[in-house]
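F.,

This is the one I mentioned.
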């Protein structure tokens, strides 16, 4: 496993452009299975999760051709559906959380799909009910095979549209059901659908392929099924979580960073949330500027009570951002309650921040109170192990703002979501050495 050796206390400055959104990439790449025609997707990030998903689709028979570094042409005109019954498929699919979004397109177009228990970050329960129950309502039969530890889905006569009320506004669940519904007979209505920008992007791409999706941007989607979909050209949004990560790094190091072409209108309340922590955020056209010359102070609510930052379905704060907000708060003036509602294991990395001198009270698996130090470089260096993507990037942010030299092990986890993160940060003035 690779590790980072990070010399803290170096002020970051300069310009950087975010890469394409990981979460959107996993959705739109799976959607290429819905058509036999060519689909060209640009702004694809060069990260481990995306590489592994493309490899999985190639094994299924999808033809891929990179037109340039971040633009790829996909054509799923010679798919071998029987490959999903192989041991290699089950092993590779189980290692990748994004593989869950293959089942919607596969069962819709080919009438069969297999879902091994998917991998991904170990951040708590990540149930599959929304996916499986939704596809069952569309007419897919399913059973769990305890021998190969996988769900088997079958719809030999195709899917049929229906009304469904999702029990949770799952992003990947909504993506799966939208993709499946595009080829279902009749009308499908999905209520309590996720409406994140990446779901909106998926719907727009599908419409450009010939789908008929209404209600984009709301939690009530109506999909009129069509017989087949065609090709399309699609450009992905920049990664909101990467944007938030760089904003956090600028704040922690007292830096001055201009983030270029961030799609400001698609960031929701994230910039405002950083401002509530006292971070100096400026919007200049489609760029964001964080110029943190002085330490920052956390706001209180109007009634004087302690600030709370909690994750919520869009347009609320993404749960992927809370670990970043938590780290940034460690050297602010004031206190904040971080409430991670969705995943019960995502805050367990705070013990490493406490080892670095942070004042954090872990109230329970979902809530942590951060009492800021009110000064830069208030953390001291330590050795850490990255348990998942978001905790890993939070540790890197902490190390960049700390005094001394920290070591972060298992940075392959960070590589799953961030392209060349050490190289790009070193261009901004960081001092990070990657050791393999």
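My design for it:
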């Amino acid at each position: 496993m690779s590790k980072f050796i990070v010399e803290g206390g170096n002020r970051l400055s300069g310009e950087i452009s975010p890469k394409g959104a990981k979460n959107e990439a996993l959705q739109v790449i799976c959607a290429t299975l819905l058509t036999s025609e060519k689909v060209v997707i640009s702004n694809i990030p060069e990260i481990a999760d995306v590489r592994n998903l493309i490899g999985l689709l190639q094994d299924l028979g999808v033809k891929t051709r990179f037109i340039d570094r971040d633009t790829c042409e996909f054509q799923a005109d010679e798919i071998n559906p029987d490959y999903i019954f192989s041991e290699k498929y089950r092993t590779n699919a189980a290692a990748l959380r994004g593989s869950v979004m293959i089942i919607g397109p596969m069962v819709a177009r080919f009438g069969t799909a297999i879902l091994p228990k998917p991998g991904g970050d170990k951040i708590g329960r990540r149930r599959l009910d929304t996916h499986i129950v939704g596809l069952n309502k569309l007419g897919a039969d399913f059973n769990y095979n305890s021998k190969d530890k996988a769900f088997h889905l079958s719809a030999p006569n195709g899917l049929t549209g229906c009304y469904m009320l999702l029990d949770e506004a799952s992003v990947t669940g909504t993506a799966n059901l939208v993709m499946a519904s595009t080829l279902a007979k009749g009308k499908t209505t999905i209520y309590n659908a996720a409406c994140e920008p990446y779901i909106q992007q998926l719907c727009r791409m599908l419409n450009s392929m010939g789908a008929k999706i209404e209600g984009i941007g709301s939690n009530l989607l109506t999909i009129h099924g069509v017989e087949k979909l065609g090709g399309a050209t699609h450009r992905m949004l920049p990664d909101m979580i990467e944007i938030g990560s760089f904003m956090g790094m600028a704040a922690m190091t007292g830096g001055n960073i201009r983030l270029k072409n961030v799609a400001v209108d698609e960031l929701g309340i994230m910039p405002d949330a950083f401002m509530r922590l006292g971070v100096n955020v400026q919007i200049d056209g489609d760029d964001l500027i964080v110029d943190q010359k002085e330490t920052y102070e956390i706001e209180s609510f109007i009634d004087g009570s302690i600030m709370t930052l909690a994750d919520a379905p869009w347009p609320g704060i993404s749960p992927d951002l809370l670990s970043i907000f938590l780290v940034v708060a460690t050297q602010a003036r004031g206190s904040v309650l971080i409430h991670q509602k969705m995943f019960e294991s995502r805050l367990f990395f705070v013990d490493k921040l406490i080892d670095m001198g942070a004042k954090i009270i872990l109230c329970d698996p979902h809530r942590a109170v951060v009492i800021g130090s009110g000064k830069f470089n208030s953390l001291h260096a330590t050795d850490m192990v990255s348990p998942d993507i978001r905790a890993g990037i939070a540790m890197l942010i902490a190390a960049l703002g700390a005094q001394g030299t920290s070591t972060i092990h298992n940075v392959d986890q960070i590589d799953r979501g961030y392209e060349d993160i050490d190289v790009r940060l070193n261009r901004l003035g960081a001092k990070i050495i990657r050791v393999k």
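The two ends are 6 Å apart (CA to CA).

Talk soon.
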